């Protein structure tokens, strides 16, 4: 009887623990992709500030990110897309427009 009770308690603990761990692993995976998008955006903005061209794509962690440069009036920007989500950052130009 004791063995059956301890087996039941162990089974309940594992059945509660397993979905929690799977959910946390999925959250970590999504947060890692968000950090990768932010890092790529930062690195591409540094390239813009140095006057270099923005990369077309970036591959890290088995995911390929598509990168697009945005230019409107006196503002520049970067759009990062990985198929699921996208990140857009707008950069104010440091150059003063000449009249």
Detailed description of the structure:
The structure is a single chain. With about 100 residues, the protein is of the alpha+beta class. The protein has one helix at about 1-50; strands at about 55-60, 65-70, 75-80, 85-90. The radius of gyration is 23 Å and the shape is rod-shaped. The N and C termini lie far apart (about 90 Å).
Overview features:
99 residues; single chain; alpha+beta; four-stranded antiparallel sheet
Mean pLDDT equals: 83
Order of neighbouring strands in the sheet with most strands = 1-2-3-4
Which percent bin holds the helix content?
Answer: 40-55%
Order of helices and strands: HEEEE
Distance separating the two termini: 90 Å
The radius of gyration over CA amounts to: 23 Å
Shape: rod-shaped
Low-pLDDT segments, ≥5 res: none
Q: What's the number of helices?
A: 1
Main β-sheet: number of strands, strand sense, barrel status?
4 strands, antiparallel
β-strand percent reads 25-35%
Number of strands: 4
Helix-strand category: alpha+beta
